[in-house]
Amino acid sequence: MKKKLLVSSIGVLFTVIIAFLGYLFIIFMGDYVLDEEKLVMNTASTLVDLEGNEITKLYIENRELVKLSEVPEHVQNAFISVEDQRFYKHHGIDVQAIGRAVYKDILAGGKVEGGSTITQQLAKNIFLTNDKTFFRKTKEAIIAINLENRYSKSKILEMYLNQVYFGHGAYGIQAAAKLYFNKDVSDLTVEEGALLAGIPKAPSTYSPIDHIEKSKERRNVILKLMADQKYLTYDDSVRKQGKTVKLNVNKKQESPWLTTYLDMVFDEAKEKYAISNEELLRGGYTITVPLKKELQKTAFDLFQKGEYFPGTDDSVQGAFILLDNRTGGVLAAIGGRDYVPKGLNRLKVTRQPGSTFKPIAVYAPSIEKKLFKPYSLLKDEKVAYGDYTPTNIDNQYAGAVSMFDAIIQSKNAAAVWTLSELGINHSKEYLEKIGISIEDEGLAIALGGLSRGVTPIQMANAYRTFATNGKYSEEHLISKIENREGEIIASNDSKGKEVLTPQTAWQMKRMLQHVVTEGTAKNGDFPGDLAGKTGTTSYTEVKGAAKDAWFVGFTENVVGAIWMGYDKTDEQHHLTSGSAYPTKLFKDILTTANIDKNVTFKKPKNVKDLENPIRVEKIEQVQAKYTFTPLGLITLTLEWEEPKDKRVEYRIYKQNGAKQELVGTVKGKGYFEIPYTNVFSATTYIIVPYNVQTKEEGEGKAVSQPHLLGNR
């Protein structure tokens, strides 16, 4: 008897030792099979505007992590009831549940019930594949036991609820609540929680979107289980089973209007902040951007309309960008009329800018260098510079033209002559300061004749210098990036540098404003102050055809650029019209999106305003007559039409043979008096209008002194 007892005791001890060694083995193996990095789940990042409003989600898996404290207890109980009734009693593996499952399988002659715990499911979903080998099940058990050893039940349940798949791209309980009921998990009712708890077993079968009746049946099974396990009373369970399934599906919105902007955000995160595209998709970041949602949508919608794009067929392309003047933030971006993710972003493709290059390559630096002023006269003649002879588009030459008129009329000859006076190096120095580096050395720079061209982004940001009183900084799409914990890990800190004096910037702004009101950019309507410049490059193989059409412009608060053309121009694919079309489209985008309507330009302090141009009119007729004073003095009065512009000055010359002698001047009046006149003289006088801005005389009008007898 004692011998049997001893043998039995030794057997028990041996069994205990083996079990203990087995447990130690499992714990030891856990360090090899449990990679805790895999517990860091892919989490959707959120794109928000400057006010914190959500724009869209970015994700590999649509998941938003929540803490278990945010999940109502009745929702937790629903999952425990159906997935793991003894969750709080086992240590990763439920031997009792496994035995019950095996027993039922034997009775049914096949597999009818699983014995996996919530911890095992978590282990399988995160660490293992779906193969059915014995070794995989062994690893699953090892990982489950180690998870239970390292984490609390609450943490394991939290990880499970955040990890499990609910169909239709929704991962985790929060994403599921948003998808099916358009609410946070914290607001789920008992029956809603039960419905969600029924989905993970077979998401495609129990989807309430696709199979509402099957979903309801499974929901009711879970509600009964909750009653069986005392989480609900049977009365509550029955009443809730009688309720219909009421969904409020938050359907994913297709957002083709947002595609360009998103790609540019991905690019900037990678290039500027070293955050890869994959990391941005799975890292649960909050990315704040300056995007104006309605503006972006408006630009996209108008870009779909063929009436704005004049070409030989309907495959004309275009690009548009709009920046915030103050910050340089990208408010809207369209990389093409049919832009696809990771496609050709035409905002980054270099093109020939045409006359839009004149203000930044010629006129602004020449004013800054104090070489010329807005009303300085520039040579407007057809002149050869070696092998290069620029011509005006209309082949008309004034001989001399003010810078003001050269800009609004887009005079090519005057622009090239001005650059020749300024010097190419000075032009390139300024261009470098505003983010444009060119290798070209010829005077064709003045007209945008570049070997590589410039991008719409570069042009918009270059013109921003005029809108910001001479300051330049790089554009940006990302204002800041916060991690899951709300810590700012990246932010835009670009500070502006002065590249023009405020005076120069303001003078350029005023001249470019007149380009819109009376120059080449008159096409279309915009109810507010707008300044800008047009540009068209010719396609010389076809008469009247254009290759590139531009408008670059700005209001008090925004600046932008539009380019139109073909990706490849040839005789069958070219523009049939020029810059009037992008000009109108630009104005229509701003007007439709209600951007700066009825907003005027604000002149900075300590800056002298630019006067409107003086337009000298031809004198049609001059009369000369005598008047008499009480003292018997005789005065000769010369009269002509009153000038519309009171700033016009008139010079009165007396003709003495071949010479002219200046008698006097008068400003803003239509008459001039010459006292003590010799009535017996036959002097001829010439009235000459004089522009005090350009220091240029107009065409004179002669009149002879009348004979006294003829005046009676």
Automatic annotation (TrEMBL):
InterPro entries: Beta-lactam/transpept-like, Glyco_trans_51, Glycosyltr_51/Transpeptidase, Lysozyme-like_dom_sf, PBP_transglycosylase, PCN-bd_Tpept. It comes from the Bacteria. The keyword Signal does not apply. Pfam families: Transgly (PF00912), Transpeptidase (PF00905). It catalyses: Preferential cleavage: (Ac)2-L-Lys-D-Ala-|-D-Ala. Also transpeptidation of peptidyl-alanyl moieties that are N-acyl substituents of D-alanine; [GlcNAc-(1->4)-Mur2Ac(oyl-L-Ala-gamma-D-Glu-L-Lys-D-Ala-D-Ala)](n)-di-trans,octa-cis-undecaprenyl diphosphate + beta-D-GlcNAc-(1->4)-Mur2Ac(oyl-L-Ala-gamma-D-Glu-L-Lys-D-Ala-D-Ala)-di-trans,octa-cis-undecaprenyl diphosphate = [GlcNAc-(1->4)-Mur2Ac(oyl-L-Ala-gamma-D-Glu-L-Lys-D-Ala-D-Ala)](n+1)-di-trans,octa-cis-undecaprenyl diphosphate + di-trans,octa-cis-undecaprenyl diphosphate + H(+). Residues 52-226 form the Glycosyl transferase family domain. Residues 318-590 form the Penicillin-binding protein transpeptidase domain. Keywords: Acyltransferase, Carboxypeptidase, Cell membrane, Cell shape, Cell wall biogenesis/degradation, Glycosyltransferase, Hydrolase, Membrane, Multifunctional enzyme, Peptidoglycan synthesis, Protease, Transferase, Transmembrane, Transmembrane helix. GO terms for molecular function: acyltransferase activity; glycosyltransferase activity. The chain crosses the membrane at residues 12-34. Its EC number is 2.3.2.-, 2.4.1.129. The keyword Hydrolase applies. NCBIfam families: PBP_1a_fam. This is Penicillin-binding protein 2A. It comes from Metabacillus malikii.
